[in-house]
């Protein structure tokens, strides 16, 4: 059997490459040394440096150095980024693995304090406050926060009626859930700060939602009628009060006028009586004349004769004035 011819090795060429091979391994070591010694912390994060698995320091954003060859390891934590978790619904494409779960239907179904059911969807917004606690105190802080949030929300909703949950009690539920969740997070040392608990869609269950909408519509109509009645009340009552006040003031003015007139008449009578006491005959005659001056013009046609007159016929057509009176 004929064996194939093997190519001859040119050992002279290998001898030329031997000096370069001596520096290849040290060069690779230097490159690996630099690669494992330099790292970058992003602007919105902090780095927790671990040396043989033990936390030794926390570094701020920027270009940093550490011991190479895996002696130091760095865990990057986004401390300045606001994270969120969604309950009862989920936004697709989220980078946070604990942002939403696959059991959304079970999460949003809750029982209220009056033993009714409600569909509650909410969002929890939070930040990493203590990177060491966030990394080392709990194995999965994101999932732990989800369980805490759901537990506290069910507790708060279970203390209220379905009407409060759906209508007037939303803000109070958010405030109470935030306070209780933050207290629980501090107790378990998750290293998180809860910024906001916000209710999204809060509705009755689908089978009873049409009836609930009818009840809401009836309540709105009732409130509208009450507002219309209050508006009419506010329009009529002040006007009636104004008219009553006007009549009271008119009556008080008339009473004051009558009192003043009566006091004037009394004063005039007293002055006349004083003069009468001084000269009775003269005063009596003056009063008589003044009285006749006021009375005679109102009599119309009149005849004045003397007591000794024997007849009056020739005098009937004499001296007739414009008022038809004969003097």
Outline the secondary-structure elements.
Layout: H1 11-37, E1 38-41, E2 46-51, E3 54-59, E4 62-65, E5 72-77, E6 83-87, H2 104-108, E7 109-111, E8 117-128, H3 131-136, H4 141-158, H5 162-168, H6 170-188, E9 192-203, H7 209-278, H8 280-295
Antiparallel strand pairs: 1-4, 2-3, 2-5, 6-8, 7-8, 8-9
Helix pairs in contact: 4-6, 5-6, 7-8
Polypeptide structure, described:
The chain has 327 residues and is α+β, with helices and mostly antiparallel strands. Helices cover 51% and strands 18% of the residues. The chain has helices at 11-37, 104-108, 131-136, 141-158, 162-168, 170-188, 209-278, 280-295; strands at residues 38-41, 46-51, 54-59, 62-65, 72-77, 83-87, 109-111, 117-128, 192-203. The strands form three sheets. Strands 6, 7, 8 and 9 form a four-stranded antiparallel beta sheet that branches. Strands 3-2-5 form a three-stranded antiparallel beta sheet. Mean pLDDT is 83; it is low at 314-318 and 322-327.
């Amino acid at each position: 059997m004929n064996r194939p011819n093997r190519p001859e090795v040119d050992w002279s060429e290998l001898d030329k490459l031997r000096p370069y091979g001596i520096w290849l391994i040290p060069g690779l070591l230097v490159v690996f040394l630099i690669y494992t010694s330099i790292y970058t912390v992003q602007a919105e994060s902090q780095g927790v440096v671990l040396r043989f698995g033990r936390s030794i320091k926390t570094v701020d954003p920027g270009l940093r150095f550490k011991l190479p060859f895996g002696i130091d390891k760095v865990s990057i934590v986004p401390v300045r980024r606001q994270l969120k978790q969604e309950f009862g619904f989920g936004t697709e494409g989220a980078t946070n693995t604990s942002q939403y779960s696959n059991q959304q239907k079970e999460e949003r179904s809750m029982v209220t304090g009056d033993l009714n059911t409600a569909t509650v969807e909410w969002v929890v917004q939070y930040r990493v406050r203590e990177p060491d606690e966030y990394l080392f105190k709990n194995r999965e802080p994101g999932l732990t926060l989800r369980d805490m949030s759901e537990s506290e929300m069910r507790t708060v909703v279970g203390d209220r009626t379905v009407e409060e949950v759906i209508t007037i009690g939303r803000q109070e539920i958010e405030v109470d859930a935030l306070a209780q969740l933050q207290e629980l997070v501090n107790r378990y040392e998750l290293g998180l700060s809860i910024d906001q608990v916000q209710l999204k869609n809060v509705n009755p269950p689908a089978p009873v939602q049409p009836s609930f909408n009818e009840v809401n519509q009836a309540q709105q109509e009732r409130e509208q009628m009450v507002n219309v009645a209050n508006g009419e009340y506010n329009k009529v009552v002040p006007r009636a009060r104004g008219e009553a006040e006007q009549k009271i003031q008119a009556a008080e003015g008339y009473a004051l006028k009558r009192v003043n007139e009566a006091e004037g008449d009394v004063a005039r009578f007293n002055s006349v009586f004083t003069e009468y006491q001084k000269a009775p005959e003269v005063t009596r005659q003056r009063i008589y004349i003044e009285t006749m001056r006021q009375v005679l013009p109102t009599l119309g046609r009149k005849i004045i004769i003397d007591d000794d007159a024997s007849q009056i016929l020739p005098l009937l057509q004499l001296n007739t004035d414009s008022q038809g009176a004969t003097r």
